[in-house]
Every structure is written in structure tokens, then in C-alpha cells.
Amino acid sequence: MRQLPVVLWLIIMLVGSGAAMAETPQSAEADWVQTRADARGQTVYWNAWGGDSRTNRFIEWVGEQTEQRFGVAIRHVKLSDTSDAVTRVVTEKAAGRDESGSVDLLWINGPNFLSMKEQDLLHGPFVRELPNSRYLDLSPGSASTTDFTVPTEGFESPWRLARFVFNYDSARVEDPPRSMPALLDWARAHPGRFTHPHPDNFMGATFLKQALVELTPDPTVLQRPVAEADFEAATDPLWSWYDRIRPHLWRSGRTFPANESEQQQLLNDGAVDIGMSFDPASTAAAIQQGLLPESARVIVPAGGSIGNVSFVAIPYNARHTAGAKVVANFLLSPRAQARMQDIDVLGAFSVLDFDRLDETARARFESLPDAPALPSREALGQTLPEPHPSWMTRLVEAWSQRYTR
Amino acid sequence: MLLRTGLRTLVIAVIIGPVLLGVTQTLTAAFGWLPALGERSIGVAPWVALLDRPGLVTSIQLTVWTGIAATIVGFALAFAFVAGLYGTPAGRRLTPLLAPFLATPHAAIAIGLAFIIAPSGWLFRLLAEPLQLSQPPSFALVGDPMGIGLILGLLLKEIPFLALVMTASLGHLPVRRWLIAARSLGYSNASAWLRVVLPRLWPHIRLPTLIVLSYALSNVDMALLLGPSNPPVLAVVVLRLYTDPALSSLLTAGAGALLQAGLVMTAFAGVWLMERLITVTGRIWLRRGGRDRFVTPLLAMGRVGVRVLFALGGMAITALLVWSVTWRWPWPQRFPEQFSLAAWRQSGNDWTGPFGHSLLFAGITTIAALVLAIAWLETERRGRSSMLAGIVYLPLLLPQIGFLPGLQFGFLQLGIDAGILAVSWAHLLFVFPYVLLVLVGPWRGFDPMLTYQAASLGAGPLSRLLRVKLPVLIGPILAAIAIGVAVSIAQYLPTLIMGAGRLSTLTTEAVSLASGADRRITAVYAMLQTLIPLLVYTVAIITPIIRARNRRFLRE
To answer: What is the pTM of this model?
Structure first.
């Protein structure tokens, strides 16, 4: 696999999704050879949330690999919030810096993606240029081509799967609630033992969205921009539910942990009994790191939970576009994806379409280790679609209006 | 003469230029003018958007309350500490203890304090058994709506600073003589301090007090780590607006930054007004000559308060050390279940970069600040301290969030990329005034006879400076270096904003990790962050002692 012979590329291109491509396979292949050549010697500034040490170490490994294989080094710019990097690109555009920008590759999702796409701040479309995109299901409307209902149109490339789950300490909680109404009953019976991250944070907003999806009378309206729907009618059940649960939250719902990591710390300290995550493997990972008790387990809401794919995108003014593409492509290789899904490394679920993998690639995934707190793909149940990004913005605004005094 | 004017203009340009650039950008943005962004609609729309933000009034109240409470209590406790221990053996023992607190960066103190007073912090772990707590209490001082945790954190940093400044200033005043005179008139010790010493001390410590007030009203890193979050203090609101992906938020952030600056200016005006008021009414109070009895216990209470705070601070730093070598420490155990160096080893790959950056910025800015400060002091004319001379303290008096975002814009337009130059320059704005503060007293107190003698022996201006003045003043210079390093290491906002996240230091990493789940890794960064300035302080204290061994006159 070290250096695929040109002929093999040719065959793959011809057999693979060649038909869907505008360019002829030969020129696409030649383009990629050119990209690889341009990329050699570049250092890619990958701006990615830096709050998870396992993800950080995985990114470090990716950098070692791309350096060794393609001569592309990675500098991980650890963000505390993705919007920091978006602001940076906005500022650069404002100052007229249309090339040699400081961000080469960006881990991005949802509202941040929409914001950048609307302001023409993204390079692309580039996903189909990546040879490894042949392992993805790129049919319109698939998870890999939609980000919070917004079509990605090839402006961002997927790399990991995310799903909303709750986690809890099975030594303290016997029968955890599996739906939002059940959570209300549970919170009434156990005042002060549940909370959620502040909705200004992505995780807190996701919790509100999960509650909205479960409680709203007609979830299909959430798939369209909020402007086209009756916001009051759609969110009314959510607020009446929230008004009832809030007094029973940790510290009476007057203050909230800043993010999921802080919430996990509360769970580990026994300050609350239920936490949440957007990564089904994070609980097993935290146990291994001594950050949660051995008895911590994951629960998925009975009616399914919202999930999405995490993407990487390239800003329009990136200095090392070629290098960024090589990294995005390597992230999609079965080798990188299988390592990512390894619970001893990261445990994040792969975005590859298993039907498109060959025997050796599939074997990589089948030999991965298991852990008691790691749910199987089946146990995760149904994935509910993310609402349109405008819902998240409106929801958070409405929450602040109601509960920030 | 030309050289003198040139040097002074250079210093002002380097220190005040960026401030003006940043303030201008902020000012225009606050009224809708940001042409680079295509925003050309001058008006009050950003203010409307700002006032429309939920919880803004609470944010302002919170800012005013925490800032003013921390400053008043800090000032009172520092004064009580200095007055109560002046000339006593306990004073001589405790005063050196202030230095380590001064050296510890704000973020490290805040992280350590949170490890202590959080619901699952060390304090409640120790109390869990006697109080029969099976779960961490749901009451907490960290992030509490009243901002008590934030005030405590601010006090831990402000009291040592104010106490040291007061001690240094008292050295120039004939305090002993005044006290004897007052006591011979029948005033108690405490009364004498309040009625005689404080009014004479105040002009010397006005500037440091205003610096403390401005910091307390506008700090970001401590407010992020200890302050309430829903809503947070105004400076954090502005930072959030500034980092919001929506374009229009930058304008709203400009309005917020201006409001923040307005709050600080109003507070300054309040101080000035109080000063006038006390000058008038205080005279009446003084002339009445009451032998107030209540102040003695007040002073004693202050001394106790300071000791409690020191205990908290010491515990906070200890907590950092303990957490950094912990593997598992489940609630409610009093001490960790398992120790391990894993946090140091695991993060070893990660912290070397930020560690290097911290050292780099501290090195560059301290050297630059020292050179500029000496140039500034050497070109100063005796007995003429003009308004202009005070202007170099402006970066410390204005809220950082008020001009740094604007400065980043301005730098970008000038083609100064987010990089080492931009970050170092931004650090310098804050390192220089502190270095100057340390040096200004010793420089003015320098015995000119030494220079005259050197001159009469044929030494030129440069050799008089390098071979006579600097060696004699080596103690204050080392102290200034120590302060410079500590200030640079502690900078959070300048590094974050001017470095565009590319140049992370121990401080930016520690603050962002503190919102993560792993206390052990956070503790490693906070420890490293504390170690650098502590080491420099130790060197700064020990070197003059060694040098002074055979030079009696340097010892005083």
C-alpha cells in the first residue's frame, strides 16, 4: 500500500465511481499525482478541537503517517471552540488576505460549516478528487454528503461518526431513563443529580436538540430551515418539559458545566449521576484513562438519537491546499479509519461504507478489540437526522432568552 | 538632546502606538464602521444588538460587583497586613512569602483554587467524613452566581501585589517617626496607620491600585476559570462575541469592548471622586481627633483574613502538584488512591512546544522591556514627571479586551501576521509597564554621587551606565526581570488573540484544558506554568545576596 502503482490507480478509477465524475479518470488520476507532488514538504495547519487527549494523540499519529508516507507534516492547532478558527478566516478575509491564510484544514460541523459556506470561505468542491472517497457512500442525501441537513456539495470530507448517547454509573443508577419524559420523572425522583452542558456549547445545544426531536409534535418540520416553520408550535412541548425539569437539575439549573468534559468530571466525582456524549466510545475510553469508574456504561434513547458525521474542510485562502487534501484523503483510508475505531486508540466509529471495502480492509475492522462499556453498532439503534442548523441557532437563542437572567 | 527625544518617542511609539491602533479599530467597529468586512453603515446597530443580549444587565452588575468588591477587600486586607506586621519579626518572615504568589500566573492560581473549593474539591473531600457527605455538596463557590470564587481568586493575586507595592513605598517614608509622634499623642497603632500613614501612602500606591481595579473589572482568564457562566462577566461576553462565527458579532463585540472600557473609566472616576470626598471630610475627621477603638480589631481581622487566604493559596498550589501525580482519586477520598507520573509522561510530547513558546515570549519581551525601560529612565529629567510620563502605563489601565481584538485587525492590515512578532509585541505592552514600575523607584533613588565620581575618573556616559549604575542596581534589575518573566508567562488574552491559536503557550493550553475532563493533565500545565517564574524569582532573590557578600554598602 506504500505507493500504489499508477496502473492500479487507473483500474480503481475506472471500476470505481468514475462514471459520476465530470473529469475523465485519467486526468483525475494525473491531478492527484500532481496534488501529491505539490503536497510534499508542506506543513498542514489542522485546526481541530483540542479538548480530547485521545483525539489529539490520533491526530499526532496521522501526522507521523502522512509525514512518512507523503512528506506532509501536520501541525495540530488545538481549538477550544471551532468558531475560533472560523473567526480567524473571517478576519483574514476582512483584512484582504485571500491567500496564504493561517488555517489549512478545519474539523468542522453544522452551523460553522453553513456559516463558512454561505460566506464563500471554503475551498472546493474537492471530495471527489480524493482517491479514497471511493470507500464512501456519496449518493445524495447520504450521511457523508449531508451536514445537519445541508448538502455538503463536496466542500467537506467526512472522517468520523458521532452519535448522541447518555452515560451513567451503573453502580449508582439501576434503571437509567431512556426517553426525555422518563428523564423528567427520574430527575424528580433524584433532584440535583442530572444536568447538561451549557447550551452555548455544542454538547449542551445537542442535548436540547435531542429533546426537541423527541418532544416536538412533527419532527419532519425540523428538516427545513426554521424560518419556514412555526417555531412556537414546534418548541412549545420542549419548553414546558424543560420548565418542569429545570428546578430538579444540578444546582437548581442556575449554572451549568461548560462542556461535556466538565460534565464527565462531575459524573466521575459523583456530583451527578448521568452524563452525555456525542461519541459512543468516549465512555469506554474514559474508563481506560481513569477518568470514569469501571462501572460506567452507555445508554441510547429508546427512540434513537441524533447523529452526524464529522467533517474536515479547507478554507478558501489556505496556504497548503494540496497538503490538506493529502491529509483528508489519508483520513479516509481503511488503515486510518480502522485505527481510529480501535477502542485502545480512539474508538470513534468509521464513516466508510463497509459494502465498498475489500477483504483485507474489512479484516482490519473485524479484528478490533472490544470493551464492556463500548456499545455495538446494533445497540446504538436508529440514527435520527440532525435538524437544519438554523434550528440549533434559534433554539440556543430562545434558551438564553428564557433562562439567562 | 536629539538622542533623548528620539529614544522617548520610540518608547511611546512601541508601547502606545498599538494601543491607539487597537482602540481606534474598536471604536469604529462599535459604531458599525469596519470597511474591510464590508460594514459601512455607521449607526448604533451594534449597541442595539449588544443591549438585546439576554443577561447583559446581570453581566454588568456581576462585573461591577466582583471587580469593586475584590479591589476594596484586597486593598483593605493588604493594608491591614502591611500595617499589622510593619517592623515585626512576623512581617519579616511573611513578606518574602508574597513573592511566590506574585510569581504564580493567574490561571494557575485559579485552576488550583478550583481544585480546592469546587463541590468535589479537596476542601469538601476533607470535610466529607466529618460532615457525613455521601455526595459532593450541590452548593459551590466555583462558578457561583455571586462570583465569590472569582473574587477569592482575584484576592489571591491582588493582595500580594498591593502588599509588596505598599511595603516598597513605605521604605521611602519616615513611617517610624510618624508612628511615634501619633502614639505619643495617644492614638492607637491602628489609628495612627489609618490617620497618618494611609493619606501619605496613597499617592504612591494610587497607580498600582488603579491597575488592580482595571484588572479586576476586566480579566478574562480568571473569570473563565472561576466566574459564573450563565451569564458570565462582561469581558467574557465580549470574548464570546468576538469569537462568534457570525460576522455582525464582531461589531457587537466592539460595542461590548467599549462598554467594558467605559465601566473601567467610570470606576476610575469613582476613585477620583472618593479621593476628593475623603480629602474634604477626612480633614474634619482628622481634626476631631477621635481615638477610634474599632479600628484595632478591624486591623487584626484583616491579618487573619490574609492568613486564611495564604493558606488557601498554598493549598491551591499543593493541589496542583498532587493532581499532576495522581492516577485515580475518586470522591470522597482525602488523598489519591493511586499515584502515577503518567500525566507528565503522556503529555510530555504535548507540553514541550507550549513550554518553548512560553520561554521564548518571556525571553524576548523581558529583554526588550528592560532595554526600553532603562532607555526611558535614563532619558528622564530629574524633578519633571510630566503627564506624558504616565502615559506608558496606559496598557495596564485599559481593559485588554478593549483594544486587543482591534489591534489584531490593525496588525493584519499592516501585514503583521499572527506570529512571534505580533504576540511578543502584545506581551511587551504589559511587560514593559511592570518592569518600569519596579525600576522607577530604585532609579530615582540612585545616588548621583556615584555617577559624578565615575565621571571625574574619566568614564563616558555608556561606561558610567554599564560599569557603575547597572551593577549597583543589579538587585532591582533582577527583580524587574523576574516580574517581566512572570507577567509574560501569565498573559492569556494577548497570546490567544494575537497568536491566532497557532502559538500556544502553557497559559493558553492550561486555560483550554481546564474546561476538559482531565484534572491531571491540567495540573501538569499549571505546574509548569508556575515553575518558570518561580525559578526566575529564586535566582533574582539569591543572586544579589551572593553578590553582596563582600559589598556591605549594597546590603543596606
So the answer is: 0.82
